[in-house]
C-alpha cells in the first residue's frame, strides 16, 4: 500500500502545481524554460504513474474489503464510464458543444471515471486510488474555472458536427476499452 500512496503523492502532486502554486509555476516556466519544466514534469509523472500501477497491483493481491457494492453498481459504473469517455473525447475533439459548455471536460471525465469506480469497488486500494483522483479532479476543476474567470477566458461555441464526432469517438473508445482493453490491461472484464 505504501508504494501506491507514494505513487499517488508524486503523480497527483506534480499535477497539482496549478492548484496550489500557479504563480510559482509561471515564474519557473519563465526562468527555466518550457522544455526543462515539461521534461521534469514528465519524468516525475512517469515515475508516479509507474509506482501507482505497481502499488495498485500489489494491493490487489491482498485486498482489504471495506464494503461489498450491490451488483447493480457495476451497471451504473459502466454507464458512468461511457459518459466519462465522452467527456474525455470532448477535451480532444475541436468545436464541440460539450467543451463550450463545461470548459474543462477532461477534469469532469476524470471525476466521473473515479466516481464510477468508487461505486463499483469497495476495497482499500480502490478507495485510495479512485478517491484520490476524484478529490484531485474536483480541486483542479475548481482552480481551472477560477483561472478562467480571472483571465476572462471565452470558449468558442460548439458545432453539431463537432459534438457528434465527440460522442462517437467517446462511445467507440469506451466500447474498445470496456469490452477488450480493460480485461487485457487490468485483468478485470467489467462487462463479463
**Main beta sheet, described?**
none
Question: How many beta-strand elements?
Answer: 0
Instruction: Provide the structure class.
Output: mainly alpha
Task: Work out the strand percent.
Answer: under 5%
Helix content: over 70%
Encode the helix/strand succession as letters.
HHHHHHHHH
Question: In one word, what is the shape?
Answer: globular
Number of domains: 2
- End-to-end CA span: 28 Å
Mean pLDDT: 94
Unreliable runs = none
Helix/strand layout:
Elements: H1 2-14, H2 17-20, H3 22-32, H4 34-61, H5 72-92, H6 97-102, H7 105-120, H8 124-151, H9 160-186
Helix pairs in contact: 1-4, 1-8, 3-4, 4-8, 5-7, 5-9, 7-8
How would you describe what is shown here?
With 192 residues, the chain is an all-alpha fold. Helices cover 80% and strands 0% of the residues. The chain contains nine helices and no strands. The protein is globular. The chain starts with a helix and ends in a 6-residue tail after the last helix. The mean pLDDT is 94. It comes from Rhodoferax saidenbachensis.
